[in-house]
Design brief:
Layout: H1 2-17, E1 20-25, E2 29-32, E3 39-48, E4 60-66, E5 69-80, E6 83-96, E7 99-103, H2 107-110, H3 113-118, H4 136-152, E8 156-159, E9 163-166, E10 170-177, E11 184-194, E12 197-210, H5 213-223, H6 225-251
Parallel strand pairs: 2-12, 7-8
Antiparallel strand pairs: 1-3, 3-10, 4-7, 4-11, 5-6, 9-10, 11-12
């Protein structure tokens, strides 16, 4: 009977024996206006150890801010007859528009390659979902090109010392969102890692959206695409005509 009781209580005891994460974010919404030059998010929280006792070897923390996922076509340029031209292209069915990972130590010191791939920890472990039909060497070449391009744009970031842990229980990480970040829903994932294993995880969502005049323009382009296209063509023509007329009158 006692053995049956222990077996029944084992899952509960194990759950209580596992540390937990209590994460939070400095802002759940980021508004993009005409003067938007970027924003810094603070991802912070606490590690709750069973009984409040910190082990001799405290766990590490990695945070990932990612989203939104979207299709993208990467084009490769080559110099042909002295002119740079699009020589080849490759389409990815899905790739995060933004990806940043920060950790208390380098990822390769925290987990093995298999675990890093499962949780998409690190730029080299992103699941980019290529469109298919291409040779493996071509897919790898374009994956490398996409990662390099978005690194230079500040849209893909990896900081191996970006998580600060205070007193072994409080953690925080600062991640900068650049001005060219896509709008949509972002996910902030926090992973607690001990001896090469992810022992706890937590997820929070962040909304990045346009506001003010930028929101009006985006909604108009989506709802009234034909009128928006006509306006985009006619407005420069009207401004050009007005400028020419102004200079003509001044010259007269």
């Amino acid at each position: 009977m006692w053995r049956a009781l222990l077996l029944a209580l084992a899952p509960l005891l194990l759950a209580q024996a596992s540390p937990k994460l209590v994460p939070d974010i400095s802002s759940r919404a980021v508004e993009i206006q005409y003067s938007f030059t970027g924003a810094e998010l603070l991802l912070f929280g606490a590690i709750l150890y069973p009984g409040g006792r910190v082990p001799r070897r405290p766990a590490d923390v990695a945070v990932v801010l990612k989203g939104p996922v979207q299709p993208i076509t990467v084009r490769e340029k080559q110099k042909i007859a002295g002119i740079w031209m699009n020589a080849d292209s490759h389409r990815f069915r899905s790739a995060p528009g933004f990806y940043a990972v920060a950790s208390s130590r380098p990822i390769d010191e925290l987990v093995n390659e298999r675990t890093a791939a499962i949780y998409e920890l690190g730029l080299q472990n992103l699941q980019l979902s290529p469109g298919g039909g291409a040779q493996p060497d071509k897919e790898r070449r374009f994956e490398t090109g996409l990662l390099d391009l978005r690194r230079r744009e500040g849209l893909y970031v990896e900081d191996p010392d970006g998580v600060e842990i205070s007193e072994d229980v409080l953690y925080r990480a600062r991640i900068f969102i650049p001005s060219q970040v896509p709008v949509g829903t972002f996910t902030a994932e926090t992973f607690l890692i001990d001896r090469g294993k992810v022992i706890a995880a937590a997820t929070r969502e962040i909304t990045v959206d346009k506001s003010g005049f930028e929101r009006f323009v985006a909604e108009s382009a989506d709802r009234y695409s034909l009128l928006y296209g006509l306006a985009a063509v006619l407005l420069p023509l009207l401004l050009g005509w007005a400028a020419a007329e102004l200079f003509r009158r001044r010259g007269a």
